[in-house]
């Protein structure tokens, strides 16, 4: 079992490693970045040592998740930061082949984030059964 001091040291090293990296952007058509759809990474809560990191596209499609011991690991583990998790970006590029931008929403900001709530609403529409004509 990791000691608290070792866990803190590892987290500090991780934060330092990714410090200053911008959010990842895939923009093969050279569109204005603000026009690209967003893939949100967010902290969906949890408890001490087990936090649920989730990914959702602006169109409501769930694109993955990860369990992290602390929120500080989430942006890199989800692929939100430039240069992190190229394996995840393969899926993201299939979903949005014309481009996307990444954004991380921390747990403290989830309840007030309009873009994330819009993605949640789109997700609910995807889950609703289609009415027959």
Describe the structure.
The chain contains four helices and five strands. 33% of the residues lie in helices and 25% in strands. A five-stranded mixed beta sheet has the order 1-5-2-3-4. The model has no long low-confidence stretch (mean pLDDT 90). With 133 residues, it is α+β, with helices and mostly antiparallel strands. The protein has helices at 4-18, 74-78, 86-95, 114-127; strands at 25-26, 38-47, 50-57, 62-68, 100-105. The protein has one domain (4-127).
Annotation keywords:
5 strands, 133 residues, 5-stranded mixed sheet, 4 helices, alpha+beta
Poorly predicted sequence stretches spanning 5 or more consecutive residues: none
Rg calculated over all Cα atoms: 16 Å
Number of helices: 4
Structural class: alpha+beta
Instruction: Give the CA-CA distance, first to last residue.
Output: 58 Å
Number of strands: 5
How many structural domains are formed by the residues?
A: 1
Proportion of β residues?
15-25%
Widest sheet: strand ordering: 1-5-2-3-4
Largest sheet report:
5 strands, mixed
Write the topology of this structure:
Layout: H1 4-18, E1 25-26, E2 38-47, E3 50-57, E4 62-68, H2 74-78, H3 86-95, E5 100-105, H4 114-127
Parallel strand pairs: 2-5
Antiparallel strand pairs: 1-5, 2-3, 3-4
Describe the structure concisely:
The chain has 133 residues and is α+β, with helices and mostly antiparallel strands.
């Amino acid at each position: 079992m990791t000691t608290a001091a070792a866990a803190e040291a590892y987290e500090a090293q991780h934060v330092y490693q990714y410090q200053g990296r911008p959010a990842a952007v895939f923009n093969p058509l050279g569109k204005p970045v603000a026009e690209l759809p967003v893939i949100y990474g967010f902290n969906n809560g949890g408890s001490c040592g087990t936090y649920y990191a989730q990914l959702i596209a602006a169109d409501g499609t769930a694109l993955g998740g990860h369990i992290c011991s602390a929120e500080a690991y989430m942006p890199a583990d989800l692929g939100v930061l430039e240069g992190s998790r190229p394996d995840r970006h393969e899926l993201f590029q299939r979903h949005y082949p014309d481009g996307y931008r990444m954004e991380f929403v921390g747990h403290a900001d989830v309840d007030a984030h309009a873009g994330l709530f819009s993605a949640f609403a789109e997700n609910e529409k995807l889950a609703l059964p289609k009415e027959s004509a």
